[in-house]
User: Which sequence fits this backbone?
């Protein structure tokens, strides 16, 4: 009976904890990040994840011809200077936030309908510690009407 209870507890932790963490990340994004996209209109796609220090995440997005956009990277403060790049599909860098004092957003006009890659990198802490920091990172896209 004890072995079965242990197995059920382990399965519950594997299933329930990620759902709770993801829900907290969505709550953070809605409360802290979405208001900062203004005056652009949020496109309705919620792209957020819990990342650890040193993680890199990529998202392929479509941008339409003759449209003004804002790409906004919102992350929890404990992660430090989260950096992002905007790359074309040949992986050429179009924008790199590190070159612009780690700004959190970039506004641009798309000159053609195209797919671009948003790459986000969470910095690794310079201080050695036993517990790796993790937190919510969101990629929010807005457009002008």
Assistant:
């Amino acid at each position: 009976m004890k072995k079965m209870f242990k197995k059920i507890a382990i399965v519950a932790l594997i299933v329930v904890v990620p759902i709770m963490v993801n829900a907290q990340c969505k709550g953070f994004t809605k409360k802290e990040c979405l208001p900062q996209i203004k005056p652009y209109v949020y496109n309705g796609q919620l792209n957020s994840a819990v990342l650890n220090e040193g993680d890199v995440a990529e998202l392929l997005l479509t941008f339409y011809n003759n449209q003004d956009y804002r790409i906004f990277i919102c992350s929890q403060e404990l992660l430090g200077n989260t950096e992002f790049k905007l790359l074309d599909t040949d992986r050429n860098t179009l924008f790199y936030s590190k070159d612009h004092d780690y700004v959190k957003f970039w506004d641009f006009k798309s000159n053609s309908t195209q797919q671009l890659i948003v790459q986000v990198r969470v910095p690794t802490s310079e201080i050695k510690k036993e517990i790796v920091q993790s937190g919510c990172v969101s990629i929010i896209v807005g457009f002008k009407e």
